[in-house]
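Here is one chain, start to finish.
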Amino acid sequence: MIRTIYWDNDAVVLIDQNELPLEETYLTCRDYQHVITAINDLTIRGAPAIGIAAAMGIALGVNNSSDASCEGLKTLFEKLCREFSETRPTAVNLFWAINRMKRCFDAALPQGLDCVKKTLVREAVRIGEEDVEINRRIGMHGRLLVTDGDGILTHCNAGALATGGYGTALGVIRSAWDEGKRIHVFVDETRPVLQGARLTAWEMMHEKIPATLITDNMAGFVMKQGKINLVIVGADRIAANGDAANKIGTYSLAVLAKVHGIPFYVAAPLSTIDRNIADGDGIPIEERNNEEVVCFRGVRTAPDNMAVYNPAFDVTPNEYITAIITEAGRATPPFEENIEILFGNKE
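Its structure:
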């Protein structure tokens, strides 16, 4: 299994996704600021993986503290939570993980500083381990939607690299492949950072799953040719009504799939569903650096001083989504009602 992020010898170790697919290298973060930098510069990305990184980064910061007072440690902990919460605003798993660490901290603090440090490390590691198992359950529920011989289109990277391991959208694909279904994956390159071309293509080759790379603007034509039987994507935040935010370009694929009568599935853990947001209009959309659009790996691809708009995500309205696949099962329309049923199943 691809190891995206893990705790080792009082440090956070993560695969450097900016170096893929040319080099498979791992970074060892020994201070929490290094983890924050890794989140911000996309060394680690993907909503579940960001949540794990934040949990481990918070544990790392507390673990490295030399403060001998409970009050001092609490002040540091609050600072850590605040700094991590400011990294990636769209990925709700980030805030879910931070809130989980807060509950853990509050419960452990009365038992002393050493207990707090050990408890936070255990909790962060547990979040990562649980994520892998959650992804496997998503895969088991999702593979029932895949038929032998299907062509599957996916966008961005919702695989092991975007999670603690195994993947959400790619977890469904892995599970179907492991079941013996002969599938073929069409991988959108995913402009402007090419997560599909660099990361998903790498994962498919790593797992020896048949795949073909296409540019983003080929998707409609490939659908028209009858090569696509279903679309599976991940999500960074899902509203209570099922509207789903994912990498920019997802909405376009959903519209194209609707026109061509192709099922469009979103695969994500329940922690990605934000029941505090009624619909997609309330999901914050991160805008990233202009350089991602006008340059690629230091090479200029657009004129100097060109105006740029670079939203990292878009929102797919629920009417374009066939089902949301989670570890607790699948939600179909009406989403608001059936999402609540899924949470009830888990609880």
